[in-house]
Structures are given as structure tokens and as C-alpha cells.
Design goal:
The structure holds two protein chains of two kinds. Chain A is mainly α. Helices cover about 40% and strands about 5% of the residues of chain A. Chain A has helices at about 10-30, 40-45, 85-90, 105-120, 130-135, 140-150, 160-170; strands at about 35, 50, 60-65, 75. In chain B, α2 (about 60-70) packs parallel to α9 (about 255-270). The chains are: A mainly alpha, B alpha/beta. The interface of A and B includes residues 90 and 96 of A.
């Protein structure tokens, strides 16, 4: 996204997406291929995206198509349970004072480790989302360090980028509609 | 004139670039907030008469001071001017015990909507009162959040930091932009800045103890204790800065006091700690990491576009 929102007006939406792609390509040398945004599937395909990551309809990566059955994208599941912001941010998503529930990193480590253990047993997938301003704090990056170190004690844990996962799915488990 | 969106030095210091006096490994800062403000109006007469306020000003404060003494720790007390005036003897007692008295607003009111002249007057009056009570000008100014605030960072106006520089304050006591002392820039072009000490609400007792009062909260001193311990462990390992913010009317009550005692015992088990007051820390930082050499500003990259935020 250009500014962490998707405009409702189609022309402005495309303008934001075009600016996003150009900015990332200019800074990194490569066009982005994935998003967590709600941009329309049609525009994402038009601009070369291969995956999105918006909800949790399945634990595993799966394919999503738009209402017309077109514009197929890989979908990498996302869930707030494996996202840091909800646990560690005051007034997240505009929540009011009486609804605050900030917690400590050990509590979240236990949650994330249980999630990992369950998916490891299944041969599954975890897509943990972190924000630098949240998990970059000293007490939390120490927790992330412990979490990853512990994951690496088990054999067969793969740590790819989202793009690598998406391309793996497209190659090994192609959808007839992905082309 | 275009408003600059660079409010502070964007670059922190790497762990290895930080040195503390006498080879200390980690700096430990303790802020004690004496405010009992319930809302944005700041302290009202009624706020001073609650059982909690009574406890905080007397037994709670005494218990906290006793623990600090037992663990040989000094604190910076953030004191609203009206409280300094009413509890002048107690405030002078804190100075005698080696703690620092810093300003915490005129009555810890939300200044974000005040006009410059009004806010200037309050800063001047607050400074006068604290100077009168303690016999010395306060070096630091705090603007900590109130428990009922919609956000947990503390409130300032667009003029506050510039007014503090004008008033000659050595440091601002609470900033969110870094976990070490850092410069808060008020004028990018002129490099006008004030040293700011780090604050993070996850180390502030008021957000874990009977919080939120109505709603999803209740009592989470375990989370507070775990935050302090995890943060201290990480900051000690990395050689940076650990801070905590306490309120006597919260932390002074039985179960919380026990956890504080346990945590400070744990902390004191580590060698090579430096425990300065805010003014001592600011003085060291200003001398060791002066803005002239360490404030590295870069031109803002912000651009406005039609149909986009500005």
C-alpha cells in the first residue's frame, strides 16, 4: 500500500498501487510481488503480484480468486494470534482505553511456540508478522531470538521469504487458474 | 513554512558505541511520578482527597523510599508544581535523600490544545514554584501519560519542546523515539534540539495495576515484572539503558511492593550498574555525545502527492 489504506476510488487505488511498485523497485531494485493489503486482485495481477496475505481461511497457503473466478493469487494465511501488534500496542486499531490488554513477551512466546509445535507436527506453515517498532524493542527482540533459536533445534524447519513460499506453491502445486 | 516531520535524531547509537561512566555496563534510570491527575484537566482539588492520593502521599511514598534506600538506588521524581507547593516539606525531604526533583507540568494537565502564551505562562509558573520549594531550578521536564488518556505516550503541544528549550531545561524526561537518551529536534534547519530521556509505557506501573479500571483489565503485576526483567536482561546484555516509571499510589500497595522489592533485588545482583538521576544522566550524555557531533540530521524525504496523506 502507499499509505496503509486502499482508496475506494478505482483510479486513485491504481495510482497508489503504481506509486508503491515504483517506489519499492527504485529502493530495492526489484518489484514487489506480495502484499498484505486489500488491493483488488485484478490490479495486483496487473502489476505483477503473485501473492496476498489477508485472512485465515486455511492454515496452509492456498489459492484465492476474485468474485468472477479470475485473478488467482497465492494466499499466505495471516492471523492476529501470530502478529505482535495486538499484544504489545496501546490503543491498537483505535481500541479504547477500557479495552487495553497489553502483555509481556513471555506470554506471547508461549502462544507462538504452541502454534509452531502444532504446525510442526502437521508439517504445516506459520506466517508470524512483526513490526519493527513493536518487536524491535530490546525485551521483544530477545524473545524472538529465543523463539527462532528454539525452532532451529528441530530438524526440517524451513525459513523462506513469503515470495519463496509463494513460488514453491506455484511450481509444485499449480492451480489451473493461476496462469 | 512547511512543517518538518523529523522530530528527533533518526539514528540511534549501536550497542558497541555506548559507554557509561567508570566502565559501567548498563544505565538504570528510575522515574517516580507523583501526579494523581485523573484526566486531561490535571490535578483537581478532589483528586488530592481520595484514599489513593492519601496513601500515595504518605505510606505509599514512605514504603517506596524505604525500598529504594535498601537497594541503594536514586530516582528522579516528576512533580507537578501544585503538588510541590502543597507537599513542600516532603519534596524537600526527597532532595535531602539524594533524589532529583523534576517538573511535571503545572498540575499535570494535558497541554496539547493550549496556545503558546498560555503554555508559556504555565511553564514559567511551574518552574518558579519548584525553584522556590527546592531551592534550585528543575533541570528536567516530564509530560507523562495519565491512566485515563486514550494513548500511552504523554501529551505535548506543537510548542512544548521549543518552550522548554527557551526556558533553559536541560532535558525532557519522557520520549518514545529511542531506548537511550536522544535529541528531540524542534527546528530542523537550525538544529535546535533538547536532550530527551527514554520512556516506554510497558515499563510504567500505571498500565498494569488495576488497569483499565473498567474493562478488560484488573491486576497484571506479573506482566509488569516480566517486562522489567526481560528488558533489564536485554539492556544489560547489550550495554544500553534500562528505565522504569513508578507511582507511589500504585506500586506502594502490598503485592506490587513485594514484586518491586524482588525485582530490585534481582537487578542489584548485577555488577557495573550506573544509577544516575535524570539530570546526572543528561549531564553525562550532553558531554559525552554532544549534538554538535552526534545529532546527524538528513533532509526530509517526505513529498506530498495529490490524493495522498500530507
Amino acid at each position: 500500500m502507499w499509505e496503509h489504506r486502499v482508496p475506494k476510488e478505482p483510479a486513485l487505488e491504481e495510482d497508489h498501487l503504481a506509486k508503491t511498485v515504483a517506489a519499492i523497485e527504485k529502493i530495492s531494485g526489484r518489484r514487489p510481488v506480495g502484499t498484505r493489503s486489500g488491493h483488488s486482485a485484478f490490479l495486483l495481477r496487473k502489476y505483477g503480484y503473485i501473492y496476498r496475505s489477508e485472512g485465515s481461511a486455511d492454515q496452509l497457503p492456498h489459492y484465492v480468486v476474485d468474485e468472477g473466478g479470475d485473478n488467482c493469487l497465492v494466499h499466505l494465511p495471516f492471523h492476529y494470534v501470530i502478529d505482535d501488534a495486538m499484544f504489545f500496542s496501546f490503543a491498537w486499531l483505535g481500541s479504547e482505553n477500557a479495552a487495553q490488554r497489553i502483555t509481556d513477551p513471555e506470554h506471547v512466546f508461549d502462544i507462538w511456540w504452541a502454534a509452531f509445535r502444532q504446525q510442526y507436527r502437521e508439517g504445516g506453515y506459520l506466517n508470524i508478522c512483526m513490526h519493527p517498532f513493536v518487536s524491535g524493542r530490546a525485551l521483544r527482540v530477545a524473545m524472538v531470538d529465543r523463539l527462532i533459536t528454539r525452532m532451529k533445534t528441530l530438524p526440517g524447519v524451513w525459513f523462506p521469504s513469503c515470495e519463496e513460499v509463494a513460488r514453491w506453491c506455484l511450481e509444485k502445486f499449480p492451480s489451473p487458474r493461476a496462469a | 513554512m512547511e512543517r518538518t516531520l523529523h522530530d528527533s535524531d533518526e539514528k540511534s547509537l549501536a550497542d558497541d558505541d555506548i559507554r557509561w561512566p567508570q566502565g559501567a555496563r548498563c544505565c538504570v534510570g528510575i522515574t517516580v511520578d507523583l501526579s494523581v491527575a485523573a484526566g486531561p484537566d490535571g490535578i483537581r482539588a478532589a483528586d488530592l482527597k481520595t484514599p489513593e492520593a492519601e496513601f500515595g502521599a504518605n505510606q505509599g511514598l514512605a514504603a517506596l523510599l524505604s525500598i529504594l534506600k535498601r537497594h541503594d538506588l536514586s530516582a528522579t521524581f516528576a512533580v507537578p508544581a501544585v503538588l510541590a507547593h502543597i507537599y513542600a516539606d516532603q519534596i524537600r525531604g526527597l532532595v535531602a535523600k539524594g533524589h532529583e526533583i523534576a517538573a511535571h507540568g503545572f498540575k499535570h494537565e494535558d497541554v496539547s490544545a493550549l496556545d503558546r502564551a498560555d503554555e508559556h505562562q504555565r511553564i514559567t509558573r511551574a518552574t518558579e514554584i519548584l525553584t522556590e520549594v527546592t531551592g534550585r531550578r528543575p533541570q528536567g521536564w516530564f509530560s507523562l501519560p495519565r491512566q485515563g488518556d486514550p494513548f500511552a505516550g504523554g501529551t505535548i503541544s506543537p510548542n512544548t519542546m521549543d518552550l522548554l528549550i527557551e526556558a533553559g531545561y536541560a532535558y525532557m524526561g519522557n520520549g518514545l523515539a529511542d531506548d537511550i537518551p536522544h535529541y528531540w529536534v524542534t527546528d530542523f534547519a537550525n538544529r535546535r534540539a533538547i536532550l530527551t530521556l527514554p520512556y516506554y509505557y510497558h515499563f510504567d506501573d500505571q498500565f498494569f495495576l488495576m488497569f483499565p479500571r473498567k474493562g478488560t483489565g484488573l491486576e497484571h503485576p506479573d506482566a509488569l515484572f516480566k517486562n522489567w526483567k526481560a528488558e533489564f536482561d536485554a539492556q544489560y546484555k547489550r550495554g544500553r539503558h534500562f528505565h522504569m516509571t513508578l507511582h507511589p499510589h500504585h506500586i506502594g500497595w502490598c503485592n506490587r511492593l513485594q514484586l518491586l522489592d524482588d525485582f530490585l533485588s534481582y537487578l542489584r545482583g548485577f555488577p557495573a550498574l550506573w544509577n544516575p538521576t535524570g539530570a546526572e544522566c543528561a549531564g553525562y550524555w550532553l558531554e559525552t555525545y554532544p549534538a554538535s557531533a552526534y545529532l546527524r540530521l538528513e533532509p526530509s524525504i517526505w513529498q506530498d502527492y495529490p490524493g495522498s496523506l500530507s
